[in-house]
Design brief:
The chain is mainly alpha-helical. It has one domain: Ferritin, core subunit, four-helix bundle (Ferritin, Up-down Bundle), CATH 1.20.1260.10. Helices cover 39% and strands 3% of the residues. A three-stranded mixed sheet has the order 1-3-2, covered by helices on one side. Helix 1 runs antiparallel to helix 3, helix 3 packs antiparallel against helix 6 and helix 5 runs antiparallel to helix 6. The longest helix has 29 residues. About 8% of the residues have low confidence. The structure holds fe (ii) ion. Fe (ii) ion (FE2) binds next to helix 2, helix 3 and helix 6.
């Protein structure tokens, strides 16, 4: 079972809306090598694991749980790049305000969604209310057949390393497509986390006898030339991995010691969950009829918000997992950057 905290795993840096950058980022969400693929692939591999190779299962599942947060982060980033893009006029023009009650729907025959006819994917404004879709940058729907979970541990780890390396390659290409700060902050974070995940699967294959020589990371170049990436790597974000288990994990038996890059850097498995970044969510968009609450429905929403939660003793049987166990290792660390 899984728990969640209403925070993002990395911050959304504000900049103007850009439906073209948003559409490029769809590849990182719903593409063949995107975050939906990594999430589903690692979760299926761990759910379907056979035998007693527990440290390897913990390692795959820990990364899989992190990928849920990556899907959330990249979806939210696409949302911010799209939100208000109905009035985007390009770099030389003036974009409208990002949020708020921006347009009266179709008042006096106006066309507040006219821009939908020019953006890369009309579905961003026609099917969705200026928000992300589970598709790639060419509009192809995400496919379950992308998921590779053969049940052969070595093969699965090899494929996972290829998946992370291809994800990092595509994100490096994405970085070079747009200087939008919202876009680049998330792409940079994912470049660095893909680096860490390359280390995770390479280290697991090392434990099975592989010697990587000078192969890693892929693509093999100086990523610190990207300022946002450099900042994260200086914090060691590419060398850390949370296991995301509240009841103790054996991931640290594998993800520790020298990094497979052979550059003298050291890997660290972290018991504590990431701190996360608070996030306010999206405002309503009247021209998209989203959330589409009439005054009467809005009053019912407000009444619901005013309702009191159940008193202690009326609670359901669900209790805090921390009260039930906590870390098996007993080690407590401060929440860290990732
Ligand atoms: Fe990811």
């Amino acid at each position: 079972m899984f728990f969640h905290v209403q925070k993002l795993i990395n911050e959304i840096v504000p900049d103007e809306p850009d439906p073209f950058a948003a559409n490029a980022l769809q590849e990182g969400l719903g593409g063949q090598f995107g975050e939906m693929r990594t999430m589903m692939q690692y979760l299926f591999q761990s759910f379907n694991a056979r035998g007693d190779a527990t440290p390897f299962k913990d390692l795959i599942q820990g990364v899989g749980v992190e990928e849920i947060s990556h899907v959330e982060l990249i979806t939210t980033t696409i949302n911010h790049l799209l939100d208000g893009s109905s009035r985007y006029r390009g770099k030389s023009g003036k974009a409208g305000p990002r949020n708020g009650r921006s347009e009266v729907p179709g008042a006096r025959g106006s066309t507040p969604l006219e821009r939908a006819l020019e953006v890369p994917n009309i579905h961003h404004m026609l099917v969705a209310p200026q928000t992300a879709l589970p598709v790639d940058s060419a509009g192809n729907p995400w496919l379950g057949s992308y998921v590779y979970a053969s049940g052969n541990l070595t093969l699965d780890l090899l494929y996972n390393l290829m998946l992370e390396a291809t994800g990092r390659l595509q994100k490096c290409r994405l970085y070079e497509m747009s200087s939008n700060k919202t876009f680049r902050a998330t792409v940079s974070f994912l470049i660095v986390r893909d680096h860490a995940h390359e280390m995770v699967f390479a280290k697991a294959l090392e434990a099975l006898g592989v010697n990587w020589g000078k192969t890693l990371p892929i693509p093999n170049f100086d990523a610190t030339q990207y300022p946002e990436v450099n900042k994260l790597m200086n914090q060691g974000v590419h060398l850390q991995q949370h296991h995301f288990r509240l009841d103790g994990s054996e991931m640290g038996k594998i993800f520790q010691g020298p990094a497979p890059t052979g550059d003298g850097s050291m890997l660290e498995t972290q018991d504590e969950p990431p701190e996360g970044v608070s996030y306010d969510g999206l405002s309503e968009r009247l021209e998209e009829f989203s959330p589409g609450l009439s005054p009467e429905l809005q009053e019912l929403v407000e009444a619901t918000k005013r309702m009191s939660p159940p008193m202690r003793g009326e609670e359901s049987s669900v209790t805090s997992p921390r009260r039930n166990g906590g870390s098996k290792s007993g080690r407590r660390r401060k929440p860290s950057r990732v």
